[in-house]
Amino acid sequence: MSNATSTVTNLRQHLIDPEICIRCNTCEETCPVNAISHDSRNYVVDAAKCKFCYNCISPCPTGAIDNWRHVPADAAYPLADQLLWDTLPAQVALDEGQKVGAGDTATPLPDDVERIAAAATSGQGGVAPPPWSAAHPYINLYSIQKPAVATVSGNFRLTAEDASSDIRHIVLDFGNASFPVLEGQTIGVLAPGLDANGKPHHVRLYSVASPRDGERPRYNNLSLTVKRVCSDHDGAPVLGVASNFLCDLKKGDKVNIVGPYGTSFLMPNHPGSNLLMICTGTGSAPMRAMTERRRRKSSPKEDGKVMLFFGARTPAELPYFGPLTRLPKEFIDINLAFSRVAEQPRQYVQDLIRARSDEVVRLLRDDNTYLYLCGLKGMESGVDEAFADICKNHGLDWKTLHDELLRQGRYHIETY
Ligand code: NAP
């Protein structure tokens, strides 16, 4: 490989990790071009045959199949070598100037997803690194051409009948399809039908509201928090295509799902890490997922602090329900801001951050604190100002801290 010249093209070689492969033969059965074979020791991929269709990736139960090494195209690891491996070789540094070749990029993310993700993360200047201890996220396992088909197993209205918004808790079951997600990731929904131009509808992204082991543990399902959109940002009456499709779904209906997506807005896994979560409305979905993950894994000796600031119009419009609203204060410090309760002053998350400044600053000073902001784009500036003010009052420089948090994968923003 070291002999490669600047005119050599790179190959992103598909390999199977012999350490975690359980030799179940699923990949070999799935590969449409017979690029995967095995002997009594290892499963291997023939670089000359692999067409990067990714059919084998999602069915693999361990993820051993999802391994790649950049190599000069004329020096791919031969099958004979792969059959002898006990571990995967490290990525070898490539010479500068080598060209990108077949399979050098994974299946590109759909344009819609790139566009939405760029807008959602613009407040943090693009995709930030994940927490150092976050689990490995799988992304882009299902494409628009080959979506996963989920079955609706429940559609529950969270908001009161007389509330101004219709927010749903929707549970999707993936049956035998492998659809691994982590808290903080999103999935794409493909609404059926065509738009006004006769084209398929754009992909719409929703945050997963359940933890990685499912809405119900070991039930290969997940949940979404979906608000029925009936007007645009200016208040003009418009029916949101995907939200109305989802909110109208009945038990047993089928939905085409793409993704999952998201490699950054992920929770830390190490003991002692604190979560400082700030959300408005349905932006609570990833916070629910993270809270539920913590609750299920709860180990009081190891758990850090969990603090939540949550803004909603009224208590009747709070898309957080059931046992989550009755969690003990020692487990999660919940601060609810309601903006439209009759005869009460309007309250917003940034007001409560100021009101709880001592505790918030204590968390900000802790290197083990991870911040998450999700919901309306408008709240970004208000929250930023609140952080700047309380930091100033406590002798901290928010700008310096903010940049450090971003660099260390400790501040994550997803706003729409
Ligand atoms: P909403 O009900 O319109 O508003 C929730 C609360 O936020 C209200 O109290 C509202 O106050 C307040 N608010 C409005 N502007 C604010 C600002 N500038 N600063 C602080 N608080 C403010 O919220 P929603 O319709 O559910 O919107 C949630 C957002 O989250 C959407 O943009 C959605 O796209 C996004 N999101 C959704 C998901 C998902 O999976 N469904 C995931 C991530 C993000 P007022 O009474 O004054 O309006």
Structure description:
The structure is a single chain. This protein is of the alpha/beta class. 19% of the residues lie in helices and 22% in strands. The chain is built from 9 helices and 15 strands. The strands form 4 sheets. A 6-stranded antiparallel beta sheet has the order 8-7-10-5-6-9, with helices on both faces. Strands 13-12-11-14-15 form a 5-stranded parallel beta sheet, sandwiched between helices. The radius of gyration is 23 Å and the shape is globular. The structure holds NADP nicotinamide-adenine-dinucleotide phosphate. The site of NADP nicotinamide-adenine-dinucleotide phosphate has 26 residues, from strand 8, strand 9, strand 12, strand 14 and helix 8.
Compact overview of the structure:
The chain is α/β, with parallel strands linked by helices and 416 residues long. The protein folds into 3 domains: 9-100, 2-Layer Sandwich (Alpha-Beta Plaits); 148-261, Elongation Factor Tu (Ef-tu), domain 3, CATH 2.40.30.10; 266-415, Nucleotide-binding domain of ferredoxin-NADP reductase (FNR) module (Rossmann fold, 3-Layer(aba) Sandwich).
